[in-house]
Every structure is written in C-alpha cells, then in structure tokens.
Amino acid sequence: MMVSGEAAGVLADALRREGRVIRVRSGQALFVEGDRAERVFLVQRGWVILSCVGPGGREVVLAVSGPGDVIGELSAFDGRPRSATAVAAEDVEAVVASSEALTRALEEPGAALELIGVLASRLRDDTHRLVDFATLSTSGRIASRLSELADRFGEPVAEGTSVALPLSQDQLASWCGASREAAVRALRALRTLGVISTGRHSVVVHDPERLRRQAQGLA
User: Fold this and answer.
1) 139-156 tens-digit pLDDT
2) What digits encode the pLDDT tens for the residues 58-111?
3) Are the beta carbons of 205 and 195 closer than 8 angstroms?
4) Domain 2-127 maps to which CATH number in 3.40.50.10170, 1.10.1140.10, 2.60.120.10, 3.30.1490.100?
5) Which residues touch 37 (CB under 8 Å, ≥6 apart)?
6) pTM, two decimal places
7) How many angstroms separate the CA atoms of 217 and 214, rounded?
C-alpha cells in the first residue's frame, strides 16, 4: 500500500523521470478501493489518508502518508483490485506513473533491495501495531501514532517538534481502534501532562521521551 519516503530514493527518482505531476484537491481521491491498479503515486506535498470500508460501512483508517511516500504499489505488483481508498487530507501534489514504470524502476541497481527493505520495515511496523491493539490502552495507542508521525514528519520548533495532524478526531480514533470519545480523552490527558499541545490540524510534541513511554505503556 505504501512505501516509506525514508528509503524510496531510487524508486522516487525513477517515478519522477517517467511520471507526471498532478494536483489533487482536499477531499478528492487518488484511487478508490476496488479500482483496477494501473498507476502508482509519489506524494510530494500534502497528506493522504488510506482507508477501507469496514462492516456497516464504517471508515477504517489504515495509514497516513506524506511527502516522499509511494502509495498504490502493491496492487501494481499482484494485479488485484485496490484494497484501500486514498483521499487527499489537504491539497496534494503527487507524481503519478504507470505500474509498468514501477516495474522498470526495480531493474535499476539497488532498487529491488531497497523495496524489500522497506516492505520488511512495514511488516515490522504492522506487527508492532497489532501488539499495540492487544496490549495498550487508547492513550497508549494515541501516543504511539503521534510518536510515529513526529518521528517521520516532525519539524523542530522552539517548543519541541511540530507535526501536522491531517485527521479529524473520528479518523484519529479509527486509526487507533478507539471510539471518538476515548480518543478525545486521551488527547486531553496528554495535554494535561504537558506532553503535547494541539492546534487546528497540528500537534506540538513537548516531551518526546514521555510520549514514547506512553506509547510503550510505561507511563
């Protein structure tokens, strides 16, 4: 579904050479669950929420991607319909390329090993999330997701680390497997402890070590 921008240098360069830049307005879909997979996307600016439809038609948030992430690649490999919907959480700029362009990119030196490494990292992250769901409270899961976003996309500011939070409270709750009310209480508790402060679609992490401890169920 998503290749992390942290290790997508060769792939990203290849997609930029063969693809074209598109701009997607907030709320519009880059692709939809069930679509044929004919294209892959490299996010260059903005945020994309990946979700699927659960029982009863409820949106289930699977991941949040940002600048440097490649999305939509798995269906390009196995030819199966899209397993998720990708919606721009704000105005997004992305490179779109054909599935064949991604396949050709893997012929470049080091690209295949790079992708294998990223997929292995994603499997480990998915395992950690499963452990989070099984062992952590809502506060711990919220802390874990915020810590993840801060580590990947955070920007240093005088008060700590600022990270965009493109999710609504309902979406954040879904991403963490919690009710909206429980997610609101968890955010309030983290603010009261001085670990974070929140603004409109943004969070500042003031105490990253304590946030990590919360994410590990140690605080």
Assistant:
1) 999 999 999 889 988 999
2) 889 998 998 988 888 877 777 788 989 999 999 999 999 998 888 888 887 777
3) yes
4) 2.60.120.10
5) 31, 72, 75, 76, 79, 80, 81, 82, 99
6) 0.83
7) 5
